[in-house]
Amino acid sequence: MDTPTILKVNWLRAVPHLLAIALAGYIINTISIFQDWSSSLLAGWIIIIIYRLIIRYTVTKDHARGMKLVKTQRFQEAVEAFQKSRAFFEKHPTLDKWRSIIFLSPGKYGYKEMALANLGFVYGQLGEGKKSIEFYEECLKLNPGNGVAKAALNLINAK
């Protein structure tokens, strides 16, 4: 059985993606690597994908690793990955705040916030309800509008 994951996209935060592709395509077109706009935009799109992969496997590697571990239900190992992600973004809050521009990440929630919600989830899967609740509550302190944390706490409290 697959473990469910949630990705809330803030479509306004996707604008930097499109602008980056257009800018890369414009630069490629300006230096005359390709003669037509469609080839330049395609090359710009490829450059942005490569950039996102570099970010994913360097700066946000712990988050990506944690998500991969959750999908394979290796929850204990995921705890360590999400704790590392949380610690990194606690040290670098500006990167998290400007993630849509720096990382071209259109997600609605910041990496620290996602780490807290994910820690709530994995501790719940490990049967550690008290820790799960603590992380969901910490997530809601960071963002009272986090629907994932609210729904999880409602579900826990309904039991």
Characterise the protein shown here.
The protein has 2 domains: 49 residues; 99 residues, Tetratricopeptide repeat domain (Serine Threonine Protein Phosphatase 5, Tetratricopeptide repeat, Alpha Horseshoe), CATH 1.25.40. It is elongated, with a radius of gyration of 18 Å. It has 9 helices and no strands. It is mainly alpha-helical and 159 residues long. The mean pLDDT is 89. 30% of the residues are buried. It starts with 14 loop residues before the first helix and ends with a helix.
List keywords for this structure.
single chain; 159 residues; mainly alpha; Serine Threonine Protein Phosphatase 5, Tetratricopeptide repeat; 2 domains; 9 helices
